[in-house]
Amino acid sequence: MSEATLVVRRATAKDWAALRSIRLEALLDTPDAYGSTYEAVVTYPEEQWRTMVEHSVYFLAERDGRVVGMVSGGLNDQHPGTRWLYGIYVTPGSRGSTVAPGLVAAVVEWARAEGASDLYLHVTSSVLRAKAFYEKMGFSLTGERQTMQRDRRLTLLTMSKHLD
After folding, report:
1. Distance from C-alpha of 41 to C-alpha of 44, rounded to nearest angstrom
2. Is the backbone of residue 91 left (phi > 0), alpha (psi -120 to 50) or beta?
3. Is the residue at 137 inside a domain?
């Protein structure tokens, strides 16, 4: 598939069903990577999905009109003046392409436009592929770590990237 057909764009309310579909796929594919579970999220009604898209920052990656990835951005109360990158996911057939870097770039651009100095994220210590990807994208470990709230067996490592 041609990379030229890849589009990364901010999700709108009309994208609620596409976001739901890719989010549920992500939760089934790599459950340890996310703070929520498939069992909880699959029960969200349409109105909750619409509200999430309207009041949060979501980006979707599309190739040839099909959603192949997602990511979210948000405020970072722990480190004022910075932002978070949340919940990135790329479908297995699009991994290793420009999809994941394109999604990170969209959140970086959004965070810069918001005036943020740094972008933070949590990565589950057991998802080594994700940690390696973030390091490749210029994120580094901060030394902060915490236990995942929904599963106390999982450790979240905090990473950050300075936004020049």
Report:
1. 5
2. beta
3. no
Tokens of 124: 């589950």
Q: If you search the block for the tokens 């709230």, which residue do you land on?
A: 149
46-55 and 16-29 are packed helices; what angle lies between their axes, rounded to 10 degrees? 100
**How would you write the pLDDT of the chain (164 residues) with one tens digit per residue?**
445 589 999 999 999 999 999 999 999 999 988 889 999 999 999 999 999 999 999 999 999 989 999 999 999 888 999 999 999 999 999 999 999 999 999 999 999 999 999 999 999 988 888 999 999 999 999 999 988 788 888 899 999 999 98
Question: Quick check: is 149 in a domain?
Answer: no
Task: Identify the CATH number of the domain in which residue 56 sits.
Answer: 3.40.630.30
Parent domain of 78: 3-116
Taking a C-beta distance cutoff of 8 angstroms, is the pair 87, 74 a contact? Answer: no
Amino acid at 161: K
- In terms of Cβ atoms closer than 10 Å to its own Cβ (0-12, 13-18, 19+), residue 119 is buried
Structural domain total, the chain: 1
The reply to whether 150 falls in a domain is no
